[in-house]
Every structure is written in structure tokens, then in C-alpha cells.
Amino acid sequence: LPLHHRRITMMSKVALMAVIAVGGASAFVPTTGFLPKARLATSATSSLGLRPAGRTGSASLKMQVAAGQDTAALTRVATEARGLAMDSIAAAKSGHLGLPLGCAEIGAVLFSDFLQYNPKDPQWINRDRFVLSGGHGSMFLYSWLHIAGYELPMEEVKNFRQYHSMTPGHPEFPNSEHNTPGIEATTGPLGQGVVNAAGIAAAQKMEQAMFNTKDHEIFDSVTVALCGDGCLQEGISHEGACFAAHEGLDNLIIVYDSNDVTLDKMAEYTQSEDTAARYEAYGWEVVTIDGHDLAAIKKTMDGFRTAKNGKPKLLVAKTIIGKGIDEVAGTNAAHGEAGVAYVADAKEKLGLKEPWEVSSDTREFFKGVTTSKTETYNKWQDTFKAWKGANKEHAAKLDSFVKGEVPSAEEMFKGIPEFDQDKDIATREAGSVVINPVADLVPQFLSGSADLHGSNKNYIKTGGNFGRGFDKTYTGKNFYFGIREHAMGAIMNGIAFHGMFRPSGATFLVFVCYMRATIRVAALAEIPTTYILTHDSIGVGEDGPTHQPVETVSSLRVFPNLDVMRPADPEETVGAYVHSAQRKDGPTALILTRQNVRTLKEIPVKTRREGTLKGGYVAKKESGDLKLIILAAGSELQWAMDAAKEIGDGVRVVSMPCMSIFDKQDQKYRDEVLPPACRNRMAMEAGVGSPWYKYVGLDGKVVSVEKFGFSAPGDLVMKEFGMTAENCIKEAKAMM
Q1: Catalytic annotation present for 706
Q2: Sign of CA dihedral 701, 706, 712, 713
């Protein structure tokens, strides 16, 4: 076989069209399509001892019978998994048939043999993690979770995509809305899942390095993600693949459902690169096989698990999308529900006579699977018990990590020294101080940056650096993500999905737009990620409008379940960090200044710290009758305080570091801070002002920045846009 791809002629394409369907499905001839430019992974062959697989359709792709593999049983199970997907999608009149049908043999090997799990203890800390990156194919996962014995009843499988079911349209990580066991990540936005898997694999490397000992190996799990062309076309997958290879995540396995098809067209219409060669260039181990060959799947996956060679693994599985429904199989029509019209005939050809059929033979077969996996689980429990007895301090630490324990806010405040009240510093600089006692108090707190540690100032000084080579180890708490914000967000989500560590990551605020898709998933999945976003306004100055956030803070505030905290001084920064380190039901964005701000010593330290935890508080109470309320956040609070002092009686200043937290306070507290009787209100912030109108109302005024900035010293830019005490006084007096 040639080592390099040669363009397949039209004549040879026709010769390759005859494909024998495995597992009782009838043979079919695809009507269109061009097989991707697969490249044989000779490096994988040499290091893993695996045969190089020929191209789909060649004689070399006949099913092998592996030792100890019940091919007949697995073929039957794969057929029934196809049937479950057909029936549920047909009943819902909605969904994606292509992946569940095309990857049925892959699912059979994963859930009957390869994956390390216990369906009765789905949170087992040493389980393998399976991420369905192509989340649109969710019936693949629901079918296999049900067959494998997870607490996912058949009624829920039938209830696919229905209101409050356990089987939503795309897999959702357990949260306040869904609690489906076996779901390791919220997926659907293509490309994110494979990078979430890299984050999970990184967390696995960390737990192995932290807790395994010479005498007891309690962590040896791997992460498997299943994706298609859509995931690998998205740029985020490139960023994540580079990170995974560079840091030696050899416990990460990506199964690439390579079926020549995307939604609009056959894949050749939009892609021509050699994906296998691309991943080899990154530094991955790559093997190409027939994705319907049960023996080849098992042999390759088993080889991947044992190959501790510092390389992540890519299995290019050549599959037939929609396999089992002849009328659409192998075409882009198979991707969605176009095949529903042919389900009845397809099931008859497959030998499936009942709706949602799972035969007694399959149930019995998986009883044996469960018994085998329970034996492995019980042996691990014995090892774990011995490890705990020999490592009591580590055992207590692990227990705390698993439970997600963190000190109380009061305890954390005591552990973070007060700042010099006579020194003015930037809140990013304050953050560089605060993050270190936070990391000591919450040892599972991690940090990282997209090549901006020196600017973001979020380095954990005693944490060490994560990864391989140089000065890095897998116990390191500081992640160097490279210039890869999108991947950073998804890797952070993966670490949070893993569940043992609390990730944070940093970049300039203006570049958070590269991460919006991953922040959205974090908010939806209710996972505790922290975003440290510095250089927060036009105060950035000389770098100009490309680097001066104007709309960014307001655009983040519209995300449900994202706490956007813009502290005004070092002590509010303490409160913001403490909140982010304690939060368990969603992400937090810390918005920090580049320029120095005044330390607001006229406000008691306790008031600033505790007030920040409530989202908003009275920073300066009026003397005499209340005539005007000035609200501000971040660097503009100092101007509001100066203005109130200058104006004198009747002016209250409210600090509003986090609107979403304030809005969750009880009505009594909110009315105490913002008395409804006072409608004369003004807000000031160096950004787009629309979110403030819910507080100032139609009678109020917002002093804001409604256009892009310009390149000049930061204080000059601020002055030109009216972000000064003088302008605050002028605008306030005009309202009184």
C-alpha cells in the first residue's frame, strides 16, 4: 500500500462503492461522494503493533474475529442500538439519524468492552470519560447508556427531545434542569467536545500525578471523544489538538467518524485536506480502520490504551453514515431525519420486529458485561481502600476535592491580608496578590493564560506549571494555553466537567469574544469556571480601539447564569475572587483594570469585601434627604465617590460590581440599596450603558461610552469620553 495519498480516479471510486453492511443491514450503493484522502498511519503501526487499515471498501476491511470477542452478540447489539435511534427519532419527528446508525459498531465495542465504567456508580472517580462531541447524534449515547444499564429507563429513551425528559436534543451535563447519568459534557456546538475531552484528559493526568503512588495506582482512566467532520473543521479543534499533543496527553483518544458527509453537501465539497496527516503533524498517533469492523475497533482501541507514548490518539473510522437505511445511507440526506420515512422497511430488513426492541439475548449479554465491569470496579475498591490506609493525608485531600469543598467566605477573607489603604494600584495587580492565598485556601483552584500571564497577572507563585518538558509537571497549577483563547475556554470547561478541579483562565477582556461559545456552554452547564479578563476599558489607552473594550462587559452581562464582576478597588477584588472560588453553579468573569485606581479607604474594608459578595451595596450614604443616587462599577466608582463628596448633602453612591448577583438578593435588600422612592438616578461606566437602565429607569441618566475609542494615553481617552470626577459632578448637578 502506498504511504501517501493518491487522488482516486472516478473509475476507482466506482469500484470502491460496493460495501458490505455488517450486522444484518443490507448492502447499499452510495449515490454520491468522494472518500476522504485517508493516509495510512505507519507511525501508529510501528509503535502500537497495529495493522495499517486500507481504505473503506477495499478487500482488507473484512471483519476480523478477535480472541474473546462475541462477534454475533455485538453485531446484534449494534443492530438493536440502530433500531432504538430509528424509533426515537421517528417518534419525535426530529433528530439526527446519521451518527447513531453509522457508529453503532463503535458503540458496541466501547460500551461492551473498552470503556471502564460502572452503570450503578456513574460518578466513579476512576471511570473512563466518553464525550459525544457530535452532540447532534445524541440518540447514539442515549441508546448505549440504556443498553449498558445506566439509570436511563426505556420510557425516557422513547421520550427523546420532549419537555423535561432525560433525553434532550443534545447531551446536557447534569445540572438543575437535567440529571442524565453517563453524560460527561454538554455538547452540540461542534468542535467544543473534542477540546472538552482534552481538558478532561488534562485533569486525569493531574489526578494521576497527584494521587497515584508507587504501591497503589488508583487512577488510570482515559478519555474518549467521538466526533465527525464538523468538529474537525471547526478551528477550535485545531487549537485543542495542538495543546493536547504538546502537553503529551496520551490518555486522550478521539474517534473520528469519517463518513465523507457534511450536512449541506458531501464532504469533498468543502474539504480536501488530509486529516490524518494533519494530526500526525501535530504529534498524534493516528490509525485508520473500517469503522464497522468490530475486531479492528477493539484491537486499535486496546492498543491506544496501553500506548503510553506521550501522544494523543486519533482513530480514523471509515463509516457509512445512516447505515441500515438503504435509501439515504452514505449520503448527506442521512445526517438528519430524512431517513425517518424509511424506518419501518429498514427495521424489517434488519430483523427488528418490535418498536424500541432490545432482545432478551442482548439484555443477557450486557448482564455479563456488567458483571465483568463490576469485578474490575470491586478490585479497584480494594486498591483504593489500601491506598487510603497508606496515604491518609492524600486521602483527605482527595475526598475534599471530590466533594468540591471550599472554605467559607469569612474564612477566606481572614486568609487574605488587607491591602495598603494609601496605595493606588490596578485591580489586575490586586488580583496578582489575591490569587495566591486563594490558591492556598482552595488547593483545587487552577490558573492559566492565553500567553498573557505577565499582563493578566494571574500566576499562582507556588503552583508550578502544568504539562510535560521544560519546568512543567502534571501537578502544575498554571496552564500555558498558548495564543488559543477558544481552546482555553473549552479546556477549562473540560477540567470543570471532570469535577475535581476549579479552572480559571485569563486573557485581555477584548479577546474574550474568541471564547463566547465556550462561556455560553459553561453558563448553560452550570460549571464553576473563572475568567480573569484584564485591560477592561478605554483606559487601556495607547493600544487603541482594537484593544479597548467598549461593548464587551455589557455583552457578557446578557449571558444567563454568568456572574460578571467588575471590582472598583483592591478590596472589592478580594470579594470578587472569593465569590469566584466559592461558586458551584456557574461561571464567573472577573473584569480587571490595567490602569491604577484609587483605593477607596473611605469605605470600610469589610463593607467593600462583603458588599461585593452581594453584587451591590451602599458605598456612600447620603447626609440629609436623599436627592440623587449615583451608581457605578469598576474604575468609575472612584469618580462617583469624588463627585458625591464635592456635591455634598443628598447624594448616595451605590457600588455595583455584579448586577446578576445583586438581582438575586431579596427585595428588601435591593430596596434598601436603591430606595424605590428615589427615581433620580445616574449611572456611570466606561462602556456601553444599556444594562444600567434597569436601575436608573426612564427618568434616569447613564454616563457611558457608546462608540469605539482611539489611540492615546489612557487618562486622556478617559477624559475625552467624560470618565472623570469633573464630568460626573457636572452630570449629577444637572439632575438635582
Answers
A1: no
A2: positive
